[in-house]
Amino acid sequence: MNDMQPSALPTFDFEDVKAAHDRIKGRVVNTPTLKSITLSQLSGAEVFLKFENLQFTAAYKERGALNALLLMDESKRKAGVIAASAGNHAQGLAYNARNLGIPATIVMPSTTPMVKVEQTRGHGAEIVIFGSSYDEAYAHAMTLAEQRGLTYIHAFDDPHVAAGQGTVAVEMLEAVPDLDRLIIPIGGGGLFSGMATAARAIRPEIKMTGVQAALYPSMYGRLTGKTVTAGGDTLAEGIAVRNPSEFTAAIIQKHMDEILLVSEAQLEGAVSLLLQIEKTVVEGAGAAGLAALLGNKEKFKGEKVGLVLCGGNIDTRLLANVLLRDLARSGRLARLRLHLRDQPGALYNVVRQFADHEVNIIEIYHQRVFTNLPAKGLITDIECEAKDREQLEGLIADLNKSGYDVRQVELAD
């Protein structure tokens, strides 16, 4: 590992990634890199998926955390490590620290879902809940590190961690040596900087594309010089970073060909597609590469593309919502809003048309009071299931021909 002067940024090189690869071999899963025939047909590219969601903690973060832990001297190991994280880094660090007999403390903000708190505690870490944001948790973790003499292991702003993450690219290019491009999610930048350092050393002509959620375009803004705003509720919380590190930014700037932004609808569609086609569960960040590929088909057409499914830790209720919303966008689920007269037979005549079109009714909601319609009018919302968009549109057209004021309640893009 090359340490620069204190005033300069730390760095690492391919030799560090190769050393990390040897160091962690057998301690993490060498996850498969497999061609997806269906996604290749859908995208026009030859698509290879790296299933990092099959790590024990369901994310690539184990690699960097383990590499950093193995490089600690014995006295620091005995004292213990600490990190602030509400996600995959917390679990990866806690799991590997326990395996090495190193005490681990994880500071998590109060907004962390309880399932993630309990999963991290289950790996043997001491959990400290502090603050309502990552920044507050991080500041408290740094205070605790100083008070207790603990070593802070950062999720991405650490050359040992980034070198460990680079082993993903080593494995991908061992499996498919002639990849034309890697499409990699970017949050703090540890995964991209590590993989780019390795990939460009192994295959100098390979193209490197980064992906960020449109709600958190922090690295995109930093490297393009554009003014951006980062914030909001994104499905890809694993890459929802407001302040990426200067260390990773410098490496990404050197190796990147571009950074693409993906919408929430694109992320949701990619999560759903991976479950339907590959029968694999990924979180929003893990689907970002596929979202970028499908959103830019012409750019990648004919290329041999590697995607990293970097994590699979998604709340089951959220996953259910994503799948249902994807059905709605495809036209298979819908909510139709109709204005009816409040008189006998009004609803019956509407329901009969649903039956004629063989569209299944799931729920019916009547609203008589809280509406701006006249007293004899009512609003009816009907949630329904069709076999495809064409069948649904046929029903809507016939309802409108029959004199009903019908509109579909749309999802946000």
Q: Which labels suit this protein?
A:
single chain, 413 residues, alpha/beta, Rossmann fold, Alpha-Beta Plaits, six-stranded mixed sheet, four-stranded parallel sheet, 44% helix, disordered N terminus, ACT-like_dom_sf, TrpB-like_PALP_sf, threonine deaminase activity, pyridoxal phosphate
- The whole-number mean of residue pLDDT values reads 92
CATH topology of the largest domain, by name, is Rossmann fold
CATH class of the largest domain: Alpha Beta
Largest sheet features:
6 strands, mixed
Number of helices: 18
Uncertain segments are 2-7
Based on the structure given, which CATH architecture of the largest domain is correct? 3-Layer(aba) Sandwich
Q: What helical percentage do the residues reach? A: 40-55%
Return the domain count.
3
Q: What features would you describe in this structure?
A:
Its EC number is 4.3.1.19. This is Threonine ammonia-lyase. With 413 residues, the chain is an alpha/beta fold. The protein folds into three domains: 14-60 and 160-324, Rossmann fold; 81-149, Rossmann fold (3-Layer(aba) Sandwich); 332-408, Alpha-Beta Plaits (2-Layer Sandwich). It is built from 18 helices and 14 strands. Mean pLDDT is 92; it is low at 2-7.
